[in-house]
Protein 1
Amino acid sequence: MSLVSLTFPDGNARDYEAGITAAEVATSISTSLGKKAISATVNGAHWDLQWPIDTDASIAIHTMQDDDQANELIRHDLAHIMARAVQELWPDVKVTIGPVIKDGWYYDFDRKEPFTPEDLSEIEAKMKEIINARDPVRTEVWTRAEAVAHYEKNGEAYKVELVGMIPDDGQPIRMYWHGDWQDLCRGPHLQNTGQVPNNSFKLMSVAGAYWRGNSDNAMLQRIYGVAFKDPKALKAHLTMLEEAAKRDHRKLGREMDLFHMQEEAPGQIFWHPNGWRIYTTLQDYMRRQQERDGYVEVNTPQVVNRKLWEASGHWDNYQENMFIVEVDEDHAREKTVNALKPMNCPCHVQVFNQGLKSYRDLPLRMAEFGSCNRYEPSGALHGIMRVRGFTQDDAHIFCTNEQVENETRKFVTFLAKIYADLGFDQWKVKLSTRPEKRVGTEESWDQAEADLANGIKAAGYDFEIQEGEGAFYGPKLEFVLTDAIGRDWQCGTLQIDPNLPERLDAGYIGADGDKHRPVMLHRAVLGSFERFIGILIESHAGKLPFWLAPRQVVVASIISDADDYVQDVVNALKAVGVRAEADIRNEKINYKVREHSLGKVPVILAVGGREVEEKTVSVRRLGEKQTSVVSLDEIVSTLKQEALAPDLK
């Protein structure tokens, strides 16, 4: 029998007979490890304990203490256990696919009747029965012919189609049994159903899904579930989801009267006065920040001839996401083809190209609050977070290769201040490095990646590496902020691009008198205003910082005799820049407070007879039960300061 050499994480190696399984390796190390083992990593691949090892390899044995592997296996097994439970309850249901996704899994079923919430409860109960049965999980390798014959015999047409989709490249076709129930699966899996914790999963919802994502195919029913190895983690996740539902920007948008969407303009936003106030306040703040950091602001056309998009490369690579506009110029009965711009960068190069540029003009930081339009499938649209029409806080820095590192440092510092001002103290940087398919020399990639890395370090921050995730023409940085309930949002970017200046013939005269290509740095802090405002709303649960709140103060009368004084208070606040409004309706003060609290007004000033006589106001702040009585002069002075944006204080 031939031998294989297996190298363990500590660097030690041992020889075993070829064909040994990871389970046997675990037991050879210790009996307790053999009992605790759930899977292995072999040569970087996640490996089932039952699979044979036929070549020399590195190996690591995993137990339930290894979070990533444990959660993956639990979720993968639960997808199979759920499918088995469904077919035990309703034998006529046909199964398709059930992959692991973030925090859980889903499985698609072909069933005539729609699944109901009561059905989900019944499926959960059946799943727990299967788990408690501790049925063994086993795997076999079949030929294509065997797999097709098996599924044809059992009337599983979707599985027959799936077998036909598997590349005939020598890879095994694996069959897994969970007890007597069988499924086509590449694995790995746990060793028995009882290894799945039966109190740390939950079925969440049902949605429609076309078979293989094609609307010409049958509509299936997709059941989603979430699972963690620890019940406490499941509870925390469900609490987060409950909190996220309360913070949904679409719900808060209605309550705060910020915006609406309608079918006549899919993916486009109708901003109401309150929402547009947030938008313009945020834009004014960003404009001040950019001016202070040395940016010049431009504005470029929204409709641009296809010739520019062809020259930039977008026509060939991005056309399916562009809105095409055809115009019969001068009624010549010959259509001119244009496109609504999906991004601003080619237009910024046109501005750069006007007039002769010198090395003394660099770096040139060019910013635009550019309105862009991109086609997104209707199913992908989501409130103001995923839209077809949006505005970017977009900018492009034209610089020399030698300036890239310092511009990176400068941008990271710039971004950090803005995130802090907007209430986001937790964020991380990811550096995406060279992909397999790329242009440029290895030396140029080495330099570009080093410039970004050194710039981040010079700004005082750490970063994560995303191997191979860069664009074909250059590496990039992604800035991921964490909101108040722990969700991550990728917002800011910094992308090195030597490609577009080359394609669009951008150049400057260097100190040597020759023409040189600038490097173009694409950068954004917020990304799209629309999406970032949605993130702000959800992170703050609608309780926006006072300076950013669309309605800052409501002055409410307790008695009608206070109406004139209410207006005096409103006028005094408006005079110092506070957004104030009067509520002198003939309603009880408690009703007014409830209504304006639902609308997330940060400060409500109540005024009655005593306040009129003493020239005071009763102050109630959003989220606080206690009220205080202060003089008019004091509240005006206090709120005047609070109304200032952070950069103006």
Protein 2
Amino acid sequence: MAGRRERATKIVATLGPASSSPEKIRALYEAGVDVFRLNFSHGTQENHGKVLGAVRALEKDVRRPIGVLADLQGPKLRLGKFVDGHINLTAGTTIRFDTDPTPGDETRVPIPHPEILEALHEGSTVLLDDGKVRVRVVRKGSGFIEAEVVAGNRLSNNKGFNVPDVLLPVSALTDKDRSDLFFALDLGVEWIALSFVQRPEDVLEAKELIQGRAQINLKLEKPQAVEHLTRLTELSDSIMVARGDLGVELSLPEIPALQKRVIRESRRLGKPVIVATQMLESMISAPVPTRAEVSDVATAVYDGADAVMLSAESAAGQYPVEAVAMMDQIIKQVERDPGYRAIVESQRPDAGHSVADAVTAAAYQAALSVDAAAIVTYTLSGTTTLHAARERPRIPIVGIASQLSTARRLVLSYGVHAVHAPEEIHTFGEMATKATHTTVEHGFAKQGDLIAITAGVPFATPGTTNVMRLVTIDKAMLSRKPVGADKNDPMTPPRAAASRARGGAVLRSKPVKAKAE
């Protein structure tokens, strides 16, 4: 059984034709996957439902929370068809784009999106076929534009197009997306990934539909979204740096600096951030990646990302398990590098001014001072644990969540070992007892170790991180059982029952007092 990960950075993997069987999903999990992505740009709802069922069955079997991200397709802007299936282009020539559905030829291109033509203006750049063809609008009329071919020599049926310098009058959610959204919510996924977001209103529209049933992952893929980065990060629950789409609409040399900027901003605001697209692209068809790809994954880890993601490598590639194992090895190697910790800590954002920020920062510093084995966070909504992950501590975070959905969401966050503990905590003594048992049973601490605990009082109140305590795990046998110790919780590790039978550790609680300046 795969249990504790020996790394802080997480792995997200996309499921698809190469990886949708229960056996393959298990193999991917055991190789290192923390969160599975369902890509609704491909496949049917029925197939996605079956795959999610296999993930939930695996979760029950391994007794560890597993996160699931449902990625909505978003609007797909595509050209119409051509008489011969394609046309040849010559740089410097002019070609007409219009809404006539008649197949096009060397002189005109059908574009079944009148609202897009209306939004364009003279001087606008239009990118076709993932940027392989570039044209510039030189004239606009009623229902058509004329554009000069700047680059590219061939265009075929139904190719996509992008308009990087214009805010398009298009919702981020199509009718298909709304159907997929409600389907995914009914299945109980933890994350909804939004595509084609251009402005804050797109996220607000999704939040109104989701009504708190899942958390929002904002896919940053449009230049217009970059202009609203801070506000969009505030509105969302996590961010994905979708470098493939960004690389079409922005110049490629801009992407590395933008990646670092997004990671910094997400960390500052305490939101998990995923770096995605083409990370180990060559492993779609080869058993090993290129050296450049290894460096790309390593860079995201050095930058302090919460997670790195595999797309086609795990969904449709010939070596999905090997790709996950390779990513796992790269992350571990980076995190063992003595320079890694210095880089991550040098990028720590300024401490916030809330009580939760102060308590979390104090807990981390106290844990370092006493060489604590783990930081334990009690959380209902996940906020307490996210505050701890924001610090990017060198000490493992054991996030104890009373709700299973919260535990599944926390799997995405840096350094968090999420644990579902449905028992209601009423006192500090119960909290400390549960924290001690959990850290010992999950392999993070042993008798004689210290752990740092953060929580909110009153208990079971979201967003009230206001207590920090250091607890020593004594060598004496445990004299009291944790709350719910006799319950048969399907998410409790098998060795927990044996640990309870043997007994555990007596707690000696050490409150930490603020030192007057």
Protein 3
Amino acid sequence: MNAPFKLRPYQQEAVDATLNHFRKSDESAVIVLPTGAGKSLVIAELARLAKRKILVLTHVKELVEQNHAKYQSYGLTGGIFSAGLKRKESRHQVTFASVQSVSANLDQFRDEYSLVIIDECHRVSGEETSQYQRIIELLRQQNDALKVLGLTATPYRLAMGWIYRYHYRGFVRGEDDKPFQHCIYELPLSYMINRGYLTRPELVNAAVAQYDFSALPQDRFGEYAEKDVNELLSKHKRVTRAIVEQVMELAAERQGVMIFAATVDHAREITGYLPDHQTALITGATDLKDRDLLIERFKQRELKYLVNVSVLTTGFDAPHVDFIAILRPTQSVSLYQQIVGRGLRLNEGKQDCLVIDYAGNHVNLHHPEVGEPKPNPDSEPVQVFCPGCGFANIFWGKADGDGRVIEHYGRRCQGLLEPAIGDDSAKLQGRPQQCDYRFRFKECPHCGAENDIAARNCHQCQKAIIDPDDQLRDALKLKDAMVIRCAGISLVADGSKLRITYHGEDGEELSESFDFSKPGQRTVFNKLFGRRFANSQAPRVFSSADEVFELQTLLPAPDFVIARKQKHYWQVQERVFDYQGSFRKAY
């Protein structure tokens, strides 16, 4: 059966990447395609090529229906298993299903499936008890070589970061386990826009007052409590009215306007300022029949304004939308991109899509850096080259006016190294090894190996590493010990001797000297400070005290210094670098 659609070049590349990966490996994989890139066509082509049973999962009935329709357009027959669509068919070779319906009827999925495709796979968590993981586990019991493929425009989750570990362009996304192992194909949003596959977003700063949510407390996912948001918004009704008036003014030349509200109360208030006969409000509580009817009227352009609260970010397709107004706060880059993506589909006569963020979210649409939570509001993505393998890492950090990195928060190089010649075990695993260079590290007291700053046991000798919190706690209990929170260091060079003074935040001082004419002391200094020189970006081996003194501004200061009382002086015994624990970090 020939395909009725000719795949775009990148869609064919995504299909080829999938076939190549699963011929070599059973490890789970992710394809990243921007909203509007035609993921359903990639799914349909993969399902068409498959010889054995396939299950295509997603979380909303609209996407189940959309993916099924594309497959049927090939002249093939697939099943639908979705309570929302009132169909429960599981005997076809290809079944398009909602994750909720399959999870509630696991006994009907005891056949041997060769492949599970998960659309909008950023919704898959790492929790073993989640609906997705329970389904995958059941199918693996029938087939231990089960292939799992995810597709998404936004491959990250709040509090987790990236949902995969290894990227096909030769880098790794963190050391923790992820729901997926490999990203095998990725297409940036800018590629789609520049080549005319998507509408250009016209990102405009709000010309009227914005909401300021920055003072509100956030949960561990970086989101705000509805009660707090409502309380803040209730004090700014004049702001909301001014925003809606501007939206209506700018909408005069626009075809379809989607407004994303912060809460249900907020959405009702916004709706109240808009022309009644042109406006629909959809929330999670809207009756499904009413919701479908309102969406259809909006698509038919009987309505101009569609106000919603967290329900139309995925599985919604109205190509004529050319104005997105964001009136809700979010720390989720994924959610932000999904919101903007509602307006980027091509449509006749559509030149661009106006996007105005009234909530001050400050998300970079084209280059979201979300591997780790932002350590502080001043952080920006900085490029840090690995001294070990030369890989150009992107970490959160700070740069000066000339673009030089002043500070960064990277811990380990993200570069991937090809297996060494003769390393058959690595080749069999089918994956390269992550570069082991660490910018921040704890040294094992037993074997000297460098470990992650959060490690409890040495990755090399497996022995326990002293926890810095225990170290500090024990020292604070001793009458003859002194612990200072180090605010900075100063140096004095005198011939071959270098004196370092550690300045405590409360005015205390501790000092120690290194004699560079003695190889042992020189080695200790270089291990402590030379290895960490310039944020570990340019480790050096210093040979003289004068050489260190000339470059003292790039020497690292420890976060804590522990000393013990000798007869007439304090002797420095421990220097705690890169501290991340319950004791306050030095400022």
Protein 4
Amino acid sequence: MRLTFLGADHEVTGSCHMLETCKKVILVDCGMEQGPDIYENQEIPVNPADIDYVLLTHAHIDHSGLLPLLYKRGFKGTIFSTYATSDLCEVMLRDSAHIQEFEAEWRNRKAKRAGKPEYVPLYTIADADGASKLFCGCPYGERIHLADGIDIRFTDVGHLLGSACIEVWLQEDGVEKKLVFSGDIGNLHQPILKDPTHVETADYVLIESTYGDRSHGPKPDYVKELTRIIQETFDRGGNVVIPSFAVGRTQEMLYFLREIKAKKLIHGHDGFKVYVDSPLAVQATTIFNKNMYDCFDEETLALVKKGINPISFPGLSLSITSDESKMINFDDEPKVILSASGMCEAGRIRHHLKHNLWRQESTVLFVGYQAVGTLGRSLVEGANEVKLFGEPVEVKAHIEVLAGISGHADKEGLISWIQGFRTKPQRVFVVHGEDQVCDTFAACLHEEYGFTTTAPYTGEIWDLATNSRIAEGNQERIVKEQRKNAKAGMTVYDRLVETGKRLMRLIDQCKGWTNKDIAKLADQIQALCDKWEK
């Protein structure tokens, strides 16, 4: 029973953990890092083809975004998730691949003119489609037999449509242990989704700590605050631009905007337009409706039963094509624009920022967490100038934050969830938080609440049977030059090296083949070498 920490350790994004037990290799999450790296993540230390299962807590890209790359490198096992997560990943992974292919095309136009090497996307839409075919949807609350000695269960934690903590029961060599992977724990009393469900027993718990050092404070009146921001901005003649994650946060904002429209709270701008500029958000909204009875809270379902669509209203326009997106900025009337990505790192939001950041009449409203190093974080922290598409843009727009509107539980919410266990786990691993936050939240749980805690670093390995550390994690920070190179992307030569590594993994698997098949592969490799050797 070995647990290896591979991602989101002393960092917020890139969640990934590997469990080796009962002759099976299991990944829990396989996420993409977003924003700058602080620590060099440990590579998955096994051949992806040897991974049997992936257990996915939810669909956000920092938990699911490297599944297509895993597939590309040879993983052909089964990905277990809730039904809603499976539905969301089908569109979100394709969207992620599309963004990468589009970025590669844009970079290569510039690279060709500059005589630089070709940029290759991390994975393609075909890889995303291949990974999507490996999903197995599961209901909430049902204990599922995975393999001899391994059972799992998905429990709703209210963070995102379909999000779950994952309970894992293990029995190996006469030893029984239970792990709970929290995933991302939801905030209390958020619109649309249910509150997090508590789990009662565990030997080991991995808990996120995104807001482990701060409180959201008293719950604000979201509708009242949003009404104020819209009214003031429209009265100035500006636009309200909301960088918003296409899945989850966009639907929440539509929920509030529907209420504002229904109650006629905006004066002098009757029938104001709201644009959702994201094909992904449109698809996600359909998936929200499909999964409403499993995931919506009682208040939202009550609206549905009255025949009211909780996330639609007159004046709402859905922009799908790039031409429709461009036309938004030719509309001179004050309007609300919701566009992805939520941290302003990619996507159509950057075009809307380019058209509005320099306008003192407009408002950019942030409604979610902004990771360190992202454009969104820079704007929230008061940047006077930013770069968009290689050009400097002066920041004159009003920058607002809708306080408390977060899909993540705050410090009090996390403590409430961990205290829901009837007896204290043998150990609590604190992950998925900024560098210092992991340490301070682990210290808080230990010193104030009596939990045995560890804040692991990437590469750290634990023997769960004996509750002992087998290997230390990597605490060396990435220097700036390494970070720059990491963001430069994959060149064609890098792709060739990756292909060579895949070939070596294939050769390692040949030991059990027949002599005839091994000889055939050797002849093919020799012929390829003869062709290209000069």
